[in-house]
């Protein structure tokens, strides 16, 4: 299956407390400045 590697930078898979796995897609928008650091719920990797 083909992934939208052009519009999406990376895929983060997070394990939730209830045991279910949640996949977060961080969309890349060149028309807007980088806001991923301020929008992510927890402090993780800078890039």
Question: Quick recap of the structure?
Answer:
With 47 residues, this protein is mostly beta strands. Helices cover 9% and strands 32% of the residues. It has one helix at 36-39; strands at residues 8-15, 21-27.
Helix % is: under 10%
Q: What is Rg? A: 12 Å
N- to C-terminal separation? 26 Å
User: How do the helices and strands follow one another from N- to C-terminus?
Assistant: EEH
The beta-strand count equals: 2
Largest sheet: 2 strands, antiparallel
Name the structural class. Answer: mainly beta
Number of helices: 1
Task: Bin the strand percentage.
Answer: 25-35%
Which strands sit side by side, in order, in the main sheet? 1-2
Regions with little confidence, pLDDT below 50 for 5+ residues:
none
Overall pLDDT level: 61
Overall shape: it is: elongated
Region (Disordered): 27-47
Structure write-up:
The protein has 47 residues and is mainly beta. The protein has a domain at 1-30. 9% of the residues lie in helices and 32% in strands. The protein is built from 1 helix and 2 strands; from the N terminus they run ββα. The chain has one helix spanning 36-39; strands at 8-15, 21-27. A two-stranded antiparallel ribbon has the order 1-2. Strand 1 (8-15) and strand 2 form a beta hairpin. The mean pLDDT is 61.
């Amino acid at each position: 299956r083909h992934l939208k590697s052009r519009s999406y930078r990376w895929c983060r898979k997070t394990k939730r407390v209830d045991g279910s796995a949640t996949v977060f897609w961080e969309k890349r928008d060149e028309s807007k400045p980088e806001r991923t650091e301020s929008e992510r719920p927890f402090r993780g990797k800078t890039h």
